[in-house]
Design goal:
The protein has an eight-stranded mixed sheet, sandwiched between helices. The chain has one domain: Gcn5-related N-acetyltransferase (GNAT) (Aminopeptidase). The protein is built from six helices and eight strands, in the order ββαααβββαβαββα. The chain binds coenzyme A. The site of coenzyme A has 22 residues, from helix 2, strand 5, helix 4 and helix 5.
Length: 202
């Protein structure tokens, strides 16, 4: 079944405290400054430490192509009240990996000064709902290092469930290590959101 993909300019995903929108060249310096903390590069394989603004500019210049194709949604996480950049997130369609159906992989990071306030869970929940409602995802995947307890907890709170643990060494930058893989299929999301609507109504 075909459906209309959201246009670049229409992508504004709001939660109580956050706004997620496409990465733009104007975000490059703020993104690079936040992402240069080694605690980000240590776990996000594609982010070097330090992270040069020129590299982020190049990602931002490419971002509209992925969004227009409906394959890669490279987003920034901003503070709704202050309009400042807090981190970044991505929803990437898993076509190249031979995964059938409209499966998207979710990833995210926040500047360390914003950790511990429930923001990653709020972001992941907002992107989860947007992926199923607007992108018509059939399912979501996510993965993190087995030692990444905070991200594991974020995924559990968002409704993902454990699939398995595999060896992972995508970039060669990091030593081979174990990663935990998670998924959430549409029926599970429907059950979760139906339940939360009922809870809100009661
Ligand atoms: C993972 C990350 C996004 C979490 O952000 P956050 O806004 O602090 O997350 P939240 O506050 O929504 O939730 C964190 C949960 O993990 C728990 N947690 C944090 N550190 C933990 C640890 N060492 N052991 C166990 N639980 C831990 C928190 O207590 C909280 O759970 P709770 O609400 O049940 O108490 C942030 O640490 C980060 O950006 N890390 C670097 C990038 C990364 O790991 N990205 C994920 C890979 S896809």
């Amino acid at each position: 079944m075909t459906h209309v993909l959201p246009a670049l300019s229409d992508i504004v995903i709001k939660t109580e405290r956050l706004v997620m929108r496409p990465l733009a060249v104007a975000d490059a310096q703020a993104f690079a400054t936040a992402a240069s903390d080694p605690r980000i590069g240590d776990v996000m394989d594609h982010i070097p430490t330090p992270c040069p603004a020129e590299l982020v500019s190049a990602w931002a210049a490419d971002a509209p192509d992925g969004i227009t194709a409906g394959t890669d949604y490279s987003l920034v996480i901003t503070d709704k009240a202050q309009n400042t950049l807090l981190g970044a997130a991505n929803l990437g369609r898993m076509v190249a990996l031979g995964v059938s159906g409209r499966q998207f992989e979710l990833s995210y990071w926040l500047a360390p000064s914003h950790w511990g306030n429930g923001l990653a869970t709020e972001c992941a929940t907002g992107l989860r709902d947007w992926a199923f409602e607007t992108l018509k995802a059939g399912g979501l995947r996510a993965a993190c290092a087995m030692t990444n307890k905070a991200s594991t907890r974020v995924l559990e709170k968002t409704g993902f469930h454990f699939i398995n643990t595999t060896a992972f060494d995508a970039s060669g930058k990091l030593p081979a290590r174990l990663r935990t893989n998670f998924r959430m299929d549409k029926p599970r999301w429907e059950a979760l959101t139906q339940h939360s609507h009922l809870s809100t109504a009661s």
